[in-house]
Design the sequence.
């Protein structure tokens, strides 16, 4: 007995991505982009802070130092990090994992990136390690409160997750030239150059205020690229609505239904 498929399943067997289009409402992408823009604005609170000498007192301090207990406006900056992580997570979930080439391997890594950012906002530094030698010494002796180390771990995780997401996006898009490909490519190249600088900044405790923003910018570009990328199913559905496309697809569908 031949395999009798229902009409929707037959179409999905011919073009599996068509089935995915029904699950992606057309309003989700623009709404996700709008929500994501808000999240990126929150995530980049460092931009106005970098020009405020009242807050940014040294080029050697890390932006996490500004959130350390007792620093001016520390609570506000912690809440901005927490809000940024939550809003960006909502935007990525709203957008979904489907891109131009189907499901995107980097999407879950970006979700993890936003969660790590939110955790970092919830748990702050106990002291500004970029400014205080005694703070760094106490950190190495594990003599600081637990929330300091949670923030350190969350920051490391945020960088790891964001970097893996950029790499997977580059692997996925490099075979096709597009604005998404170019954005991911240049983001990856920038990070390759910036990582040695970041290592030097962390090891020497110097110029962290100049190096960290490079990564904040790269991660922002990656998230925004993920949100604005179009869904390939839109182009498939247009081909199916042309007369020639309908004839070809109907013929293939009938052959599959009849088992021929």
Sequence:
């Amino acid at each position: 007995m031949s395999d009798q498929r229902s009409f929707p399943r037959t179409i999905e067997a011919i073009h599996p991505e068509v089935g995915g289009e029904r699950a992606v409402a057309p309003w989700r992408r623009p709404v996700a982009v709008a929500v994501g823009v808000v999240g990126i604005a929150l995530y980049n609170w460092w931009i106005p802070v970098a020009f405020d000498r009242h807050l940014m007192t040294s080029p050697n301090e890390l932006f996490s130092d500004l959130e350390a207990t007792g620093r001016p406006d520390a609570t506000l900056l912690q809440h901005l990090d927490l809000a940024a992580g939550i809003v960006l997570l909502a935007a990525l979930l709203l957008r979904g994992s489907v891109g131009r080439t189907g499901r995107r391997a980097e999407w879950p890594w970006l979700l993890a990136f936003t969660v790590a950012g939110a955790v970092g906002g919830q748990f702050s530094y106990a002291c500004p390690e970029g400014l205080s030698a005694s703070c760094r010494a106490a950190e190495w002796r594990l003599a600081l409160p637990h929330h300091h180390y949670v923030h350190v771990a969350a920051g490391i995780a945020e960088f790891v997750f964001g970097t893996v997401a950029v790499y997977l996006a580059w692997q996925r898009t490099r075979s096709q030239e597009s604005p998404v490909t170019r954005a991911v490519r240049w983001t990856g190249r920038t990070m390759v150059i910036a990582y040695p600088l970041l290592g030097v900044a962390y090891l020497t405790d110097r110029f962290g205020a100049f190096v960290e923003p490079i990564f904040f910018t790269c991660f922002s570009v990656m998230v925004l690229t993920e949100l604005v990328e179009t869904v390939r199913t839109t182009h498939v559905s247009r081909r199916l609505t042309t007369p020639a496309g309908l004839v070809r697809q109907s013929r293939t569908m009938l052959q599959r239904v009849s088992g021929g």
Summary: The first strand starts at residue 98 and ends at 99.
